[in-house]
Each structure stands twice: as structure tokens, then as C-alpha cells.
Amino acid sequence: MRPRRWLLGLLAAAVGLMPLSALAHKESDAYLSLRTDSQDAHRMHGQWDIALRDLDYAIGIDGNHDGAVTWGEVQARRTAIENYALQRLAIKGDGMVCALQPTGQKIDHHTDGAYVVILFDAVCDKNIPSKLTVVYQLMYDLDPYHRGIVTLHAGDKTAGAVLGPSHPEASLDLREPDRWGEFKSFMVDGIWHIWTGFDHILFLLSLLLPAVLIRRRLNTSGHGFASGAAVADSSGALMAWMPHAPHNRWEPVASFWPACVDVIKIVSAFSVSHSITLSLAVLGVVHVPSRLVESGIALSVMLAALNNVYPLVNKRIWLIAFAFGFVHGLGFASALAGLQLPAGAMAASLGGFSVGVEIGQEAIVLAFLPLAFLLRKTRFYQVTLLRWGSVLIVAIAAGWLIQRAFDIPIPGFSALLSR
Amino acid sequence: MSVISEGTDSAAHRRGDGRALRFFFWVALLLGNGAVQAQSTPYIPDNADVVLQQVPPTTDPRVRHFNQLRAELSRQPHDTDKAVALARAYIDYGRSTGDARYLGRAMALIQPRMQAPQPPVPVLLVHATILQSMHFFQASRDELARILQRDPDNVQAWLTMATVAMVQGDGDLANRACVQLANLSGDFMGIVCTASLRSVTGHGEQAYVLLKMVEDPGPKAPPAIRAWLEGLLADVAARLGRVDQADAHFKQALQWAPGDNFLLAEYGGFLLDQGRPREAMALVSGDRQSDTSLLVLVAAETALALPQATADVAEMDARFRSMAQRGDHVFLREQSAYLLHIKHDPQAALAIARQDWQVQRAPQDVRVYLEAALAAHDPAAAAPVLAFIARTQLSDVTIDPLVAQLRAAAPAASTSTGR
């Protein structure tokens, strides 16, 4: 008998015949629980129990290799453990990934040994949605039989899933959809979008500035003035140099209400048109390249301001608002782009965002109108704000237009629109 | 035909991985708040020197061996020979320690290499061995059949095939595999294989004589092989009711492989059968982290009506719960016995025994099924098992009286199954 081959057979036997018994320990598990915060709608508290044996295999915990993992060795590897684990977990709400921030390290014992407990917070940009997606990839490359036992607690509601390398993702219903909460969250988004969107504000201001004034034709007498006025009419810049161009001049409105009605018309027209395109774009009916939209917005700001310096449209400013509102609506939609909204949440988020945009612009109007009305007779308002302010807006908008349409970076301009 | 129904069941299991996971989703939902997570409270250990977890120490030559292989493999990740060697080392270690995690780690090495259009035979063999160890018997068998089509003289494949066939109670296939082994690898493997088969087909005396012929495989044989042979001898002797011989072989086996998880469970069960619970306790009391050892301990404590039985039963309950949570199915035989003898719930035990019977049909599976059917006063439920015994002529001192009782309890059932 050939001993070498014989021994080979024996070794094969050791592998082949013997693993018949039940195994003494179950396979690798980890326990992940997520709990909503009753105070903070953007935050979930996570607890992830991972077996020390698994972590030791994955990244090495037993520093001195003596076969006994101590608390000191676990503490020494805290950052490594957190990095290793949290990089292999994604918690997503409405398609957006929530940030995972470790908050503590503890120890717990499960039926098959000691586990390190990673305490962390999942902080989401938006309110925690009613449906949460968990992508679980711990041990995916080290142990296909690893299972992550995931439990979600939202108030008194519990949902769970068993995830593993062959089945890493689950969407879990956290609670009955909180449409009002989603609505509020997106409403706040809408308000901030208007307030931080410098271009929208400048467009509105350009339209609103002349609302407390009336453009009145004067009976001209001096010939010399007439030619000057003609030059002034043909050039906004020159007009700016000649604030008292005689044959047309701004006069303050006599009473508050006509001005107020004017403002309401402008704002309503703007709202109607931008709501239309916002809805169409979010629903995916229309798609306009963002470069075109952004350039269009810059152009609208420029033209609206130019109209104050060299008035073309005088009586029906709301028409400008209405026409350019379509472009601004497309711009608002870009703020909602990238959200994979479930069908049910669409109405709440879109509606909330629109209402937020309205509230944001009404707030600007409410702050602007009384002040403008009080200042309307002053030279400061008529010259410095209306004329020079508009010229400045034209210059800024022209810069944006060049930058956006031709992709030419202009130093300092990006900072104006950092959002 | 039982084998066919079993085959479809196993295949369905593999295909239905997603379905199973969905099922365990609901299990997790039910258990989400359950004891496994709720009963423990994370804490911060008192000081850095507290030992939390034993992990494989580098003083263990097996650990050094696979650590070295792992390091080599990380330098040459495409070296299939190294990956196979490391996977085998993990399987061996997992078997002797009973730690199922090592099967997962072996699988992680093998699975990517299974994606190749035609994976090398050694890769397929390790894959089939892991499937067998995870109790995916039918999947393992299918894969072994494919290997043997490509390489009909593969000793390891025939050996594993024989093992799977015996667990599945397929005497014909086991016999064919034993003949092939005898032809391919000389007397030793053929004898061991044949003896194993004969011992479960009513030829225990002959099996014992055959095993005695190869009991001393020479000084070069690894201790694990000697332990394995002594364990087989102990099994056969116990089946024949030769208590003293069985006891001596168990002791001998444990001398060759001290602390071997499989042997501890087998010997512990034997001692309990013999009404020697104190010896069983002494045998496994140092190994309570192992599920199989804790089962022996709990049974011994219960038999002795010791006060600590309550706490240990609760601990075992928690372990079964956490297995259910992850969706484990490898522990059905043990769970059925536990439900019957410790929890005194014959109906539940019988339900689990039925499930177990779909997967494996070793003498221990026969025994727990019959015991559960008797205790549940449902002799008709035992019909398929009695038919199996009639077909295979299985004889075992722990099983024969159960068969007699069941036939006496349900003469109608016994006549209909035929002799």
C-alpha cells in the first residue's frame, strides 16, 4: 500500500466524513436596531451589536493575540470598529442617505458570546420618512452566512428584516405615512429655498421696487431737454446719469391700496406660473436642461431690473412676473430633484414645497411693501434704490448670465449663489 | 418516493432563499422585541482588563496555519490552491470546535471562485463539503454528482457522497459510493465506508468487526482520524447495546481529540441514555458555550432535578430563539429532542421531527421522530419512519423498543406499512 496516497485519503476523510454533527455555535449574526427620536424628526438612534469574534476576524481586535479579547483592546480599536461597520451600512429615506455618526461604545452579551455595541445616530436631511431603506453589507465579503437582524422602532410600531450578503437591502415601513409631517418638512425647504435663492429674491425685488411709484409723462417745454430725454430713453445707463429726465418721471403713489393691489397681482402671477412649471418638472412631464433654466433665470433678473432703469413694460409688471415665473418654477424643481419620492409622498412634498415657496415670497413682500411705501417719496428710494439698485442688479444678473450660459467662471459670482 | 420529494424540497429551499428570508422577516418581526435583544442591557465594562471574549489564540497551531495561509492569500488573492487550502483549514477547525462561523468564512473564499464558467474540481469539492456541513444535503449531493461526471475517480467526492447518502438514508447510493471508494483508494476507505453503512442497515456485528480491522491505521495517521474511528466504533457498539465497549471507545476517541465538539455531544448523549447524568455533566460542564454541550448539560440537570436547570433551560431557549431569528435550520433534530424531553411538548417536537425527517434520516433522527410520535399519542404519524426502518432494516437498542411500542399501539398502521 502506498502510504502517501493512503494518508491523503485519510485527510480527505477528515474533511469529508466528519462534519455531520450539529454545530456547537450558530453562524455569525449581528443585531441592528433603529429607534426614531420623538423630539427630533431628522434623527434616529441606532444600536448595532456585532460579535467580537467577527470583528476580530475582520479587522483584528485581540491586539496581543493571546486569545482573550479585553475591554481595553476593544476600546483601543473603537475608531477602526466604527469605521469598518458604519461604512457597510446605509440608511436611506426617500433615496437620500442619512449620515451615520457614532455616539458611543458598549458591550453586550448574546447567546453566543460578547458583542461590541456601536451606538450611533442616523441624521437625515429630511424628516424620517414613513418608509426607510436599510442597505446592510457587514461581512459581505467575509461570511456569506452572516445575517443582520434589523429591527426598527417608531413609537410603538416595530418592523424588522433579516439581511445578509445575498439579500442586503430591505425597505421597512416605519409608521403610518405622516403626510402632514412631510408637508411641513418640505414647506420649510421651500421657504429656505426662496430666502437663500438670491436670484429669486432679486427678481422679485426688481418687480416690486416700482410698485409704490407711478410712471408719469410730463408735459415737456424745453427743446434741449427733449433731446436729452430721447438719449436717456434709449440708454438705461445714461438715464441713470440723468435722474431727472424730464418727460417721464416716477411719482409716488398717493395711497397704499393701489400699490398693494399691484404687488398682489405681481406676486400672484409669479406664483401661478412657477407653480405650473414646478409641478410639471417634478412630475417628470417636462425636462429642461438645468443650464438653460439657470441662464433663463439670470436673464429674467436682468430684464426685470433693466425695466426699472429703462421702462418698457410699465402698467402690467405682473405680465413680466407671469412670463418669467415659468422659468423660476423650473429652477425650484431642481431643489426637489434627486429625491426618489414614493407616489404617496409626492403630493405632500410637492404641495409643501410650493406652499413654502409662497410663504417665503409673501414674507419678503410683507417686509418690503410697508417700508417701500414709507420711503417712496424719498430721493433715496427713487434714485439710490430704484435706479442704482436696479443697475447693480442688472450688472449682477449679467454676470450670472455669462457665467451660466457660457460656463465662464467669474470670480466672486459663485459666492453670491452658494446654495 | 421519498428521495424525490426530498430532492424537490431541498432544491426549492435553495431557489426559495428569498422566500425563506421573507418568511424570517416575519419571524424577526414577531421576535424583534424578543428576549434576545430585550433581556440584555449594553454596559461599559469596569476596567480595561476585563476579558470579554475568547478568540482563537495564535498559540494554537491550527490558527497559526490558517493565519499564515490568509496572509499569503491576501498577497496573492488569485491563487486558487491557497484559497482551497485555507477553506479546508477553516472547515476542519469549524468541525472540531463546532463553530459554524468557520463554514461561512470558508464559503466566502469559495463562493467567488464558483462564478467561473467551469470552476476547478477542488473548488467544487470544498463547496459541496460546506453545503453538506450546512445540512444542504440535496444541494451538496447534486454538486457531487456533477463533480463525479467530470472526474469519476475522485475519492473525496465519493467519500462525501457516501456520507450524504447515509445521512439521507439512501442505502443504494451509499453502497455504490462505498464500492467506488474500495476500488479507488484501497481497502481502508472501502472498509470504513462499508462498515458505516452496514451499522445502520441491521448488520452492526459485522460493522464492528470491519472497523476493528482498521482500528489502528498506523503511527502516521493523524489523531483526528483515530478519534473518528474510535467514535465510529463507539457508535456501533452503542447501537448493539454493548455499553462497556462503547464507553471505552468514546473515552479512547476523546483521548485522541480532547474537547472535540462532536464527540462530547455523542458521548454525553450516550451517558444520559445510560442513566449517568452526573458523568454527562462532568463531561460537558467546561464547554457550555457550545450549543450541543449545553443541550447535554440541560438534559443532565433536568434528569437530576438540579436547581440550576431553570436558568440553563432559559439560556437554551434564548439560543433556540436566536437561531430562529436568523432562520437557522441545521438544529432540527436537537430542537425536537429538546422540545420533547425538556419542554415536554410532544406536539411541537413531532412537528419539528417531521421537518427534520425531510432533511436527514440518520438513526438519531429516526429515534427522535419515533419518541415524539409515541409521546404525542400519534402512532400513525410514525408510518413513514416505520416504513423506512422496514426498508433499511435499521436496528438500534434505543430504537427497536420504540418500533415495537408503535406497532403495538397501531397494529393497523404497522400492517399497512408492510414488513
End-to-end Cα distance of chain B: 17 Å
Give the count of helical stretches of chain B: 24
Question: What value does the average pLDDT of chain A take?
Answer: 79
Helix-strand sequence of chain A: HEEHEHHEEEEEEEEHHEHHEHHHHHH
Question: What summary fits the major beta sheet of chain B?
Answer: none
Beta-strand proportion of chain B: under 5%
Cα shape of chain A:
elongated
Derived from helix and strand composition plus strand pairing, the structural class of chain B reads mainly alpha
3D shape of chain B:
globular
Keywords:
heterodimer, A: 419 residues, alpha+beta, six-stranded mixed sheet, four-stranded antiparallel sheet, 14 helices, 13 strands, disordered N terminus, B: 419 residues, mainly alpha, 24 helices, globular, disordered C terminus
3D architecture notes:
The complex is a heterodimer of chains A (419) and B (419). By secondary structure, chain A is of the alpha+beta class. Chain A has 14 helices and 13 strands. Chain B is globular and about 65 Å long. Chain B is mainly α and 419 residues long. The two termini of chain B are 17 Å apart. Chains A and B meet through helix 1, strand 1, helix 2, strand 3 and helix 3 of A and helix 2, strand 1, helix 5, helix 6 and helix 7 of B.
Give a brief rundown of this model.
Chain A is α+β, with helices and mostly antiparallel strands and 419 residues long.
List strands and helices in order, with pairings.
The complex is a heterodimer of chains A (419) and B (419).
Chain A: H1 3-16, E1 29-36, E2 43-51, H2 52-59, E3 68-70, H3 71-76, H4 78-86, E4 89-93, E5 96-97, E6 99-110, E7 113-123, E8 131-136, E9 147-154, E10 157-163, E11 169-173, H5 179-196, H6 198-208, E12 213-217, H7 223-234, H8 236-241, E13 248-252, H9 256-282, H10 290-309, H11 317-336, H12 343-375, H13 379-406, H14 413-416
Parallel strand pairs in A: 1-9
Antiparallel strand pairs in A: 1-2, 2-7, 4-5, 4-8, 6-7, 8-11, 9-10, 12-13
Helix pairs in contact in A: 5-12, 6-10, 6-12, 9-11, 9-12, 10-11, 10-13
Chain B: H1 2-15, H2 17-31, H3 35-38, E1 51-54, H4 61-75, H5 80-97, H6 101-110, H7 121-133, H8 137-150, H9 155-168, H10 171-185, H11 187-199, H12 204-213, H13 223-240, H14 243-256, H15 261-273, H16 277-284, H17 291-303, H18 309-326, H19 332-341, H20 346-359, H21 363-375, H22 383-392, H23 400-409, H24 411-417
